[in-house]
Amino acid sequence: MDVAKTAGGNGDTRALRALLAARDFPALLRATDPTTANASAEHWLYRGKALEGLLQPDAAATCYREGLAQGPEDAPLHLALGQLALQQGDRPGALEALERARDLNPDNLDCYAALLHLVPLAPDGPEAARILARALDHRRSDAARARALFLLGQLQVEAGRDRTGFVHYAAGNRLTGDSLEARKREYRLGERLFRLDRRTFAAVARSLPPCKALVVTGLPRSGKSLVESLLAEHPAIAAGGEFAGLRRAIADIPGKELPRRLSEAAASSRSPFIEAYREHPLADAGSRWLVDSSPANLPRIGYFALLHPEAPIVLCRRRARDLGLALFFKKFRSGHGYSYALETAGRAIASAERLIDHWQAVLPNPLLVVDYEELVTDPEGTRARLFALLGLAPPPRPLRSGEAEDWRLFPSKSPGAACAPRPSLLGFADRFEEELAPLVKAYEAAST
After folding, report:
1. CA 76/CA 446 separation, integer angstroms
2. In sequence order, what are the beta bridge partners of 214?
3. CATH 3.40.50.300 fits 191-429, yes or no
4. What domain of life does the UniProt record list for this protein's source (predicted)?
């Protein structure tokens, strides 16, 4: 049975949701074709999500507005429009849409999470009371209750109630971590990665066209999004987001077979990495490079370099305490199970640093390591080094609205599109020295 046709023909929400979860955006777009599907509010919502997934934000915004023209009281459409405006750096548009979504559905946690990019919420106000009620409602799933606890943690910390806020975060992390399989709670790197050395790369015969990937990677909250935004100021570079092209390219190859299979691919002038990036929505946008900022690429860079030593790579890292706190304060939608306990987060940071040092020592690629602290205190110097890595002259700086400084920063959140690098989060973890002791101990033990 054709899921797309079924979804489009009878408005089957489950089918549309499945396509969105599978990130099959072309099929989702076909399933919500307005000429064949019932144009309900749900139709416009899923069609807009498909367009967002295909990196067509203007078309997505138009889609949401078309849906709201037919049903102006639909809270999910207002929320989707507000979240999109937030991503695009449109503060007034985001605030208007999100406040409307909140008024229509004051129990939606995603709406509060988005609003916190723009305005504070009182830790003892009515919104906090609603969020607390969700956290205490045992009829809800652990994931939903944990989501509420993470939001309560942010409200308390932003109000200066650090101890209370950390207690909320710890409870949310426990709920989330306890639901994960044991094997998903650690950040594991195979020792075979560290056996890839300079001789390994020198021994591979290559005759391949260049891959347009520009890999920017590291753990989440280490500055990848900021680096991507700086790079995307140049017309030769497209911001591709967390596409995870390296993972996609070799997902079906067993780890022990990777070096042999990739050597065979190089000898036959085939590259699974080139093929993977051809599937990106911006593959044909005319840019010379396509940034892929997925954390999942970090352990796979060595395999990529076997075939593409010409591809530039940027590795991002951050002071362990600040990074650990940012991870612990973040409720990820999927993956990153190591972030839900302080000890596992500390070990993950140490492992990632060890791998970054290894790649810096052995990779044949043009490579730059960017420290978060340097990125936000010297953005112009970092910008110059990034473009020097690519052999490009830095483009003129884009004009920034004065509203850019009004975007609110918090350790768990990526900056908005209009937010310039700012050092306000440096040393934020020092406020939690006692609470972070288990993370620091695990990090130091794993670093020796």
Report:
1. 45
2. 291
3. yes
4. Bacteria
Tokens read off for 119: 């305005």
Structure tokens at 250: 């070799």
Tell me the residue type at 121.
Answer: L
Which burial class, exposed, middle or buried, applies to 363 when counting CB atoms under 10 A from its CB (0-12, 13-18, 19+)?
Answer: buried
Could you report the per-residue pLDDT of 392-439, keeping only the tens digit for each? Answer: 999 988 766 554 556 788 888 876 555 677 888 999 999 999 999 999
**Alpha-carbon gap, residue 415 to 410, rounded angstroms:** 8
**What does the pLDDT look like over 329-374, one tens digit per residue?**
999 988 999 999 999 999 999 999 999 999 999 999 999 999 999 9
CB 249 within 8 A of CB 275: yes
The answer to whether residues 222 and 273 touch, using CB atoms and an 8 Å cutoff, is no
Task: Round to whole Å and give the CA distance between 279 and 232.
Answer: 20
Sign of CA dihedral 96, 97, 102, 104: positive
**Residues 6+ away with beta carbon under 8 Å from 284:** none
Structure tokens at 359: 């790649």
What the block records as the tokens of 248 is 């996609």
Using DSSP bridges, classify how beta strands 289-292 and 237-239 pair: parallel, antiparallel or unpaired. Answer: parallel
Reduced 3-state DSSP string for 134-175: HHHCCCCCHHHHHHHHHHHHHHHHHCCCHHHHHHHHHHHHHH
Domains of the chain, residue spans = 191-429
**What DSSP character marks residue 313?**
E
Name the percent of the chain lying above pLDDT 90: 79
Please check whether residue 113 is in contact with residue 86, taking contact to mean a CB–CB distance below 8 angstroms: no
